[in-house]
Amino acid sequence: MAGRGAVAQRETQMSIASSSAARHICARGNWGVTNLALQKILYMAQMVHLGRTGQRLVDAEFQAWDYGPVEPGLYRQVRNFGNKPIQDVFFWAPPIGGTQEAATLDEACNFLIQKSPGELVAMTHWQNGAWARHYVPGSRGIPIPDADIIAEYRARVGGA
Protein backbone atom coordinates (compact mmCIF):
# COMPACT_ATOMS: atom_id res chain seq x y z
CA MET A 1 0.00 0.00 0.00
CA ALA A 2 2.88 2.38 0.73
CA GLY A 3 4.09 1.92 -2.84
CA ARG A 4 0.72 2.96 -4.26
CA GLY A 5 0.74 6.11 -2.13
CA ALA A 6 4.16 7.05 -3.44
CA VAL A 7 2.98 6.59 -7.02
CA ALA A 8 -0.16 8.64 -6.38
CA GLN A 9 1.91 11.36 -4.76
CA ARG A 10 4.25 11.49 -7.77
CA GLU A 11 1.33 11.61 -10.20
CA THR A 12 -0.14 14.63 -8.43
CA GLN A 13 3.16 16.45 -7.93
CA MET A 14 2.69 19.90 -9.39
CA SER A 15 6.27 21.06 -9.69
CA ILE A 16 9.88 20.22 -8.99
CA ALA A 17 12.51 22.03 -6.96
CA SER A 18 14.19 24.80 -8.95
CA SER A 19 17.55 23.40 -7.79
CA SER A 20 16.69 20.05 -9.43
CA ALA A 21 15.76 21.84 -12.65
CA ALA A 22 18.97 23.90 -12.48
CA ARG A 23 21.12 20.83 -11.98
CA HIS A 24 19.43 19.17 -14.96
CA ILE A 25 19.97 22.21 -17.21
CA CYS A 26 23.58 22.70 -16.14
CA ALA A 27 24.38 19.02 -16.64
CA ARG A 28 22.79 19.14 -20.11
CA GLY A 29 25.04 22.12 -20.83
CA ASN A 30 28.11 20.18 -19.68
CA TRP A 31 28.46 22.60 -16.75
CA GLY A 32 29.09 25.51 -19.12
CA VAL A 33 25.84 27.35 -18.30
CA THR A 34 25.97 30.82 -16.71
CA ASN A 35 23.46 32.21 -14.22
CA LEU A 36 21.94 34.44 -16.91
CA ALA A 37 21.51 31.52 -19.33
CA LEU A 38 20.15 29.28 -16.57
CA GLN A 39 17.51 31.85 -15.62
CA LYS A 40 16.37 32.36 -19.21
CA ILE A 41 16.27 28.66 -20.10
CA LEU A 42 14.40 27.85 -16.90
CA TYR A 43 11.87 30.64 -17.53
CA MET A 44 11.21 29.46 -21.09
CA ALA A 45 10.81 25.88 -19.85
CA GLN A 46 8.44 27.10 -17.13
CA MET A 47 6.42 28.93 -19.80
CA VAL A 48 6.15 25.86 -22.01
CA HIS A 49 5.24 23.60 -19.10
CA LEU A 50 2.63 26.03 -17.77
CA GLY A 51 1.21 26.55 -21.24
CA ARG A 52 0.90 22.85 -21.94
CA THR A 53 -0.14 21.51 -18.53
CA GLY A 54 -1.47 24.47 -16.57
CA GLN A 55 1.02 23.57 -13.81
CA ARG A 56 4.33 25.12 -12.82
CA LEU A 57 7.48 23.27 -13.80
CA VAL A 58 9.37 24.58 -10.75
CA ASP A 59 8.15 25.29 -7.26
CA ALA A 60 9.04 28.98 -7.29
CA GLU A 61 7.85 32.15 -8.96
CA PHE A 62 9.74 34.32 -11.40
CA GLN A 63 10.21 38.04 -10.91
CA ALA A 64 10.71 40.83 -13.45
CA TRP A 65 14.32 42.01 -13.06
CA ASP A 66 16.45 44.21 -15.32
CA TYR A 67 17.89 41.33 -17.33
CA GLY A 68 14.58 39.51 -17.62
CA PRO A 69 12.69 36.93 -15.60
CA VAL A 70 14.60 35.64 -12.58
CA GLU A 71 13.87 32.98 -9.98
CA PRO A 72 15.35 34.84 -6.98
CA GLY A 73 16.14 31.85 -4.77
CA LEU A 74 18.05 30.15 -7.54
CA TYR A 75 19.77 33.42 -8.45
CA ARG A 76 21.05 33.78 -4.87
CA GLN A 77 22.20 30.17 -4.87
CA VAL A 78 24.47 30.63 -7.91
CA ARG A 79 25.25 34.36 -7.99
CA ASN A 80 28.80 33.83 -6.73
CA PHE A 81 29.69 32.37 -10.13
CA GLY A 82 29.08 35.79 -11.72
CA ASN A 83 29.19 35.42 -15.49
CA LYS A 84 31.24 32.21 -15.28
CA PRO A 85 29.79 28.71 -15.76
CA ILE A 86 27.93 27.34 -12.75
CA GLN A 87 29.56 24.37 -11.04
CA ASP A 88 27.56 21.61 -9.37
CA VAL A 89 26.37 23.17 -6.13
CA PHE A 90 23.10 21.22 -6.25
CA PHE A 91 24.24 18.12 -4.34
CA TRP A 92 20.98 17.83 -2.35
CA ALA A 93 18.71 18.38 -5.37
CA PRO A 94 16.51 15.35 -6.05
CA PRO A 95 17.09 13.82 -9.50
CA ILE A 96 14.30 14.24 -12.04
CA GLY A 97 15.36 11.87 -14.83
CA GLY A 98 12.56 10.15 -16.68
CA THR A 99 9.87 12.63 -15.62
CA GLN A 100 7.63 14.89 -17.65
CA GLU A 101 9.50 17.81 -16.10
CA ALA A 102 12.85 16.44 -17.31
CA ALA A 103 11.38 16.04 -20.80
CA THR A 104 10.29 19.70 -20.79
CA LEU A 105 13.74 20.79 -19.65
CA ASP A 106 15.42 18.60 -22.27
CA GLU A 107 13.27 20.17 -24.98
CA ALA A 108 14.15 23.67 -23.75
CA CYS A 109 17.85 22.81 -23.61
CA ASN A 110 17.80 21.34 -27.11
CA PHE A 111 16.53 24.65 -28.44
CA LEU A 112 18.19 27.17 -26.12
CA ILE A 113 21.44 25.88 -24.65
CA GLN A 114 23.56 27.10 -27.58
CA LYS A 115 21.99 30.57 -27.75
CA SER A 116 24.10 33.58 -26.82
CA PRO A 117 23.27 35.60 -23.70
CA GLY A 118 21.99 38.41 -25.96
CA GLU A 119 19.69 36.05 -27.84
CA LEU A 120 18.29 34.65 -24.58
CA VAL A 121 17.71 38.12 -23.16
CA ALA A 122 15.98 39.20 -26.37
CA MET A 123 13.68 36.18 -26.17
CA THR A 124 12.62 36.85 -22.59
CA HIS A 125 12.30 40.62 -23.13
CA TRP A 126 9.64 40.07 -25.79
CA GLN A 127 7.48 43.21 -25.93
CA ASN A 128 4.25 41.17 -25.75
CA GLY A 129 5.56 38.94 -22.97
CA ALA A 130 4.83 38.54 -19.30
CA TRP A 131 8.16 40.07 -18.23
CA ALA A 132 7.47 43.26 -20.23
CA ARG A 133 4.03 43.60 -18.59
CA HIS A 134 5.50 43.64 -15.10
CA TYR A 135 8.98 45.07 -15.47
CA VAL A 136 9.75 48.35 -13.69
CA PRO A 137 13.31 49.55 -14.43
CA GLY A 138 15.63 49.11 -11.45
CA SER A 139 13.05 47.20 -9.41
CA ARG A 140 13.18 43.69 -8.04
CA GLY A 141 10.57 41.66 -6.23
CA ILE A 142 7.81 42.17 -8.81
CA PRO A 143 6.26 38.74 -9.42
CA ILE A 144 5.32 37.58 -12.90
CA PRO A 145 1.90 35.91 -12.50
CA ASP A 146 1.46 32.42 -13.91
CA ALA A 147 -1.61 33.60 -15.84
CA ASP A 148 0.54 36.11 -17.73
CA ILE A 149 3.19 33.47 -18.44
CA ILE A 150 0.47 31.21 -19.86
CA ALA A 151 -0.84 34.12 -21.95
CA GLU A 152 2.68 34.66 -23.31
CA TYR A 153 2.94 30.98 -24.21
CA ARG A 154 -0.38 31.13 -26.04
CA ALA A 155 0.65 34.29 -27.90
CA ARG A 156 3.96 32.73 -28.93
CA VAL A 157 2.38 29.53 -30.23
CA GLY A 158 -0.45 31.29 -32.01
CA GLY A 159 -3.29 31.11 -29.53
CA ALA A 160 -2.99 27.39 -28.74
Short synopsis of the structure:
This protein is mainly alpha-helical and 160 residues long.
Top keywords for this entry?
160 residues; 4% strand; disordered N terminus; mainly alpha
The termini sit apart by 40 Å
Q: Sheet with the most strands?
A: 2 strands, antiparallel
Class based on secondary structure composition and strand pairing: mainly alpha
Q: What strand line-up does the widest sheet have?
A: 1-2
Radius of gyration: 15 Å
Task: Give the mean pLDDT.
Answer: 91
Please tell me what the overall shape is.
globular
H/E series: HHHEEHHHHH
Low-confidence stretches: 1-12
Question: Level of helix content?
Answer: 40-55%
Counted beta strands: 2
Beta-strand proportion? under 5%
Please count the helical segments. 8
